Amino acid sequence: MPIPFGSPPPPGTTRPTRSRPRRLPLLAGALALSLPLGLAAASHSGAQPHLAPTGLAAQQYEDRFLELYDQIMDPANGYFSEEGIPYHSVETLIVEAPDHGHETTSEAYSYLIWLQAAYGKVTGDWDPFNEAWQVMEDYVIPGSADQPTTGFYNPQAPATYAPEYGDPSSYPAPMDNGVSVGVDPLAGELAATYGTNDIYGMHWLQDVDNVYGFGNAPGAPCAGGPDTPGPSFINTFQRGPEESVWETVPHPSCDDFSHGGANGYLDLFMDDNGYAEQWRYTNAPDADARAVQAAFWANKWATEQGNEGEIAATLDKAAKMGDYLRYGHYDKYFKQPGCTSPSCAPGTGKNSANYLLSWYYAWGGSTDTSGGWSWRIGSSHNHFGYQNPMAAHALSADPDLVPASPTAQGDWETSLERQVEFYRWLQSAEGGIAGGATSSWGGAYGNPPAGTATFHGMYYQEAPVYVDPPSNQWFGMQAWSMQRLAELYLETGDATAGEVLDKWVPWVLSETTVGADGDFAVPATLAWSGQPDDWNPADPGDNAGLSVTVTDHNQDVGVAGSLANALAFYAAATGHTEAQAAAAGLLDALWEHRDDVGIATPESRGDYSRFDQEVYVPPGWTGTMPNGDVIDSDATFASIRGFYEDDPDWPKVQAYLDGGPEPVFEYHRFWAQADVALGLATYADLFGEDD
């Protein structure tokens, strides 16, 4: 029988460290058969895969990149606001982590920076890359006016403890001054390095068109309202792992009690003796890390062109962002890993760091600058999908990106090793990477069940952070995170990275199909059982008790683009022809799904039945949204988002809610278009002719 299409490299294959990506010969084209890739061909160590004689040259993939890039950047296609901010999607009626298409995320900003880095590589024009970073800095990194009381922050008492609960109905959570919290070891160093107490990191969510009407505009976050034009800082998720997007209550990042109830929105989430007007922001570390990752490649490519001076100022900003990104290394309340009671000893120095990229870090304070206060927290929960060892490599090894703080380079060196270990610890018997780990069981420093697997004092979580739906079931996390690891592998030859990828790639190829005329399928949903072995870096286990099953497949455009990117880097690092063929095949198939706006495939959205989802509001609590929508115990997702009834796509949803068929959409998400474009640019770069 044939060797599986995704077999690892033959024994003895070397993977030398390289100063720039190696270019390999271009394969002839896409796979001709709509078969699982693990069945379609023999190993690269022997017979060639079955290839369609399309004869595509690397230049054609570069041309496709530029064609798609032009579609994305064309103002008529609707990917950007008038400020140049990328929307989450062209379409407005879409509910995912953002609950409206013309919101945006720090993720989208980071994809714009990465896209413009690739454009600079292809064209030699670096102005768009610099401009993308500037747009990010102007609109989604809170400025001094947006965080006016950071000077009151006390790193000896970073924040008041409040437990997390499993269900939204358990909120608001009580603030508890009786629980000792650890010391923040970064604040003093960062303030001394940059001469400010402000945080230089993106807030994760923004209402670009001010659809909700909070009007939290950058530069004057509490001064707006429904008539304020332009982007507004907002937030949604606040109430534990069971709170899906369908159960959230959107609220302003600066709460001056203009909307909501008597205390704004604060007493929906926290139970305190009194409430003060305040601002607060939440950073998604994976997005900031992606921006740094993009800056690394921009630096490499611009240097190859002799254009490094054109982006020097932006690289300084990327290094600065990486300095503050270290807050993502820390437990929520700066407790030490292994803490199993709120009364455990608080952390001192850096012993509360786990050196992974956690789910968030956050900071906030009062709006009253005459007698203010301020707080900062990390996050206790770590998801494999947020890790970015390529960013850690950049921040520890690239002289132009090593941050200015004295201990930052060493922290990122530790983080690089820890992140790669994390992947290895979480790799299932089949090859997929499992969920993650926590330093606070149940979000309240509880005692985990006996026998729970451990990693550097933290405890295994099958679905870190959220469970509706489980955070480890979406295959996209696999493609995103392994793409970064594959970059690291090509760039450094890291042996553990190679070990992980040598097992992951065959698993993915066996679950991926590529056929003719745009036919393709990639994994969509994963199911998990068991857990990893306890981590022993000197003798890693084989994780025979940890297993993954692919339960369904789909044609997710962005995931397919990211997967092609990952496979291309792996192929360039190893000479694995099947991975290269699969990358080309996916990109060719995606190209068959072009329309006037970009690349899209039909999606049936049965989850839109949850527009009628009840949203928990405590009995007796009443308030209003800026447009007058009532917030009370009868609230639903749709009832506090009345603007959706005016959306041009609403009739399709209403018909479904009335008993009709599931609505079908063809969405043009910004990140997905960027992922396809980046896959095209990567393939052209890695498999073109040497300069």
From TrEMBL:
Residues 1-41 form the signal peptide. Keywords: Carbohydrate metabolism, Cellulose degradation, Glycosidase, Hydrolase, Polysaccharide degradation, Signal. Residues 1-13 have a biased composition (Pro residues). InterPro entries: 6-hairpin_glycosidase_sf (IPR008928), 6hp_glycosidase-like_sf (IPR012341), Endo-1-4-beta-glucanase_dom2 (IPR023309), Endoglucanase_F_dom3 (IPR027390), Glyco_hydro_48F (IPR000556). Pfam families: Glyco_hydro_48 (PF02011). Gene3D superfamilies: 1.50.10.10, Endo-1,4-beta-glucanase f. Domain 2 (2.170.160.10), Endo-1,4-beta-glucanase f. Domain 3 (4.10.870.10). Residues 1-21 are annotated as: Disordered. SUPFAM superfamilies: Six-hairpin glycosidases (SSF48208). This is Endoglucanase.
